[in-house]
Amino acid sequence: MRLHVGCAMWTHRSWQGRLIAHPLPAHERLRHYAGWCDAVEGNTTFYATPARETVATWARQTGPDFRFVLKLPKVVTHERRLVDAEGPLRVFLDAIEPLGTRVHALWLQLPGSFTPSDVPVLADFLRRLPEAHRYAVEVRHPAFFTDPRATRLLEEALAPSGTEWIPFDTTAFFRRPPTSEAEREAWGKKPRMPLRSVALTDRPVVRYLGRDAETETVEGWRHWVETTADWLREGRSPTVFVHTPDNADAPLLARRFHDEVRVRLPHLAALPEPIPVGPLTLF
Q1: 59, 65, 157, 244: which is deepest, by most CB within 10 A?
Q2: Name one Pfam family in it (predicted).
Q3: How does pLDDT run across 34-91, given as a tens digit for each residue?
């Protein structure tokens, strides 16, 4: 029984010297983050495929149980829209090979313009993916959440390959107007996604967006604490990513989420102990 938690990144300016030692060379930052959380979203891979040598440093900084949920490059999902994308996909798969089993899932974040009529393209793409990896899909067109026929169509397309459906829960964030600069910026960028909490596989993945105010973030995730505890009782192994508009306290919040689930399931494996943060230095 294992719950993994994490953030949208492993380095953030506001964490430096407060949660994670500073200064740190780039090849040490992930190791220090991994003392706080045991999973991370690989959002940077959406914009560019990293060098294989860079990925090898990620493997050296994390233990074998650490989880990466890596986003497929946008050239595959957004530019070529899953068609004739074998070349860039092959390059990406070769680059991430050093991570081995740390790759928990490859994440297809599809654009809002991807509609139920495009599902056959997705189904064909999934059929041709290598079986060495597990996959997860995030959709943003509202019909997938509001039209039962569209929901069923997508679930049927995901089933043969054992692909998970990642919900991005923004309901708590959009519950009231923004009150900070970070919230105002996120207000115009984040999708207004309906709540979905159905797991299709034994390894569900959740993305949760709270608020800058800790109390509102915690109140908004109550549903996920109970759902996650239920999944664990069913023998599933979930991964939950906690976001806030400024992400200043995201590692702390991710650990608090884990603690709240562990109150309900005391035998749940504990998170690692953070690496101590040394005093700030000018040299």
Answers
A1: 244
A2: DUF72
A3: 999 999 999 999 999 999 999 999 999 999 999 999 999 999 999 999 999 999 999 9
Cα distance between residue 145 and residue 264, in whole Å: 29
CA pair distance 247, 260, nearest whole angstrom:
19
What distance separates the 2 farthest-apart alpha carbons in the chain? 62
Rounded CA-CA distance 148/142 in Å is 11
Residue (of 65, 5, 66) closest to 242 by Cα position: 5
The 10s digit of each residue's pLDDT in 89-135 is 999 999 999 999 999 999 999 999 999 999 999 999 999 999 999 99
Contacts of 25 (CB under 8 A, 6+ apart): none
Integer-rounded Cα Rg, in Å, for the chain is 19
Token pair of 236, please?
Answer: 């599933």
Is-contact 217 172, C-beta < 8 A?
Answer: yes
7-26 exposure pattern, b = at least 16 Cβ within 10 A, e = fewer: bbbbebeebbbebbbbebee
Please give the backbone phi and psi of residue 118, each rounded to the nearest 5 degrees, phi first: -90, -5
Angstrom CA distances, 221 to 84, 155, 244, 271, stand at 39, 25, 12, 19
What is the reported pLDDT for 279? 57
Q: Which residues pair with 165 in a beta bridge?
A: 137
Residue in 57, 20, 17 with CA at minimum distance from that of residue 37: 20
DSSP 139-207: ---THHHH-HHHHHHHHHHHGGGT-EE--EE-TTGGGS---SHHHHHHHHHS--PPP-----SSS-EEE
**pLDDT digits 0-9 by tens, 173-183:** 999 999 999 99
Q: How far is CA 230 from the centre of its chain?
A: 20
Q: For the chain, what are the domain ranges?
A: 4-264
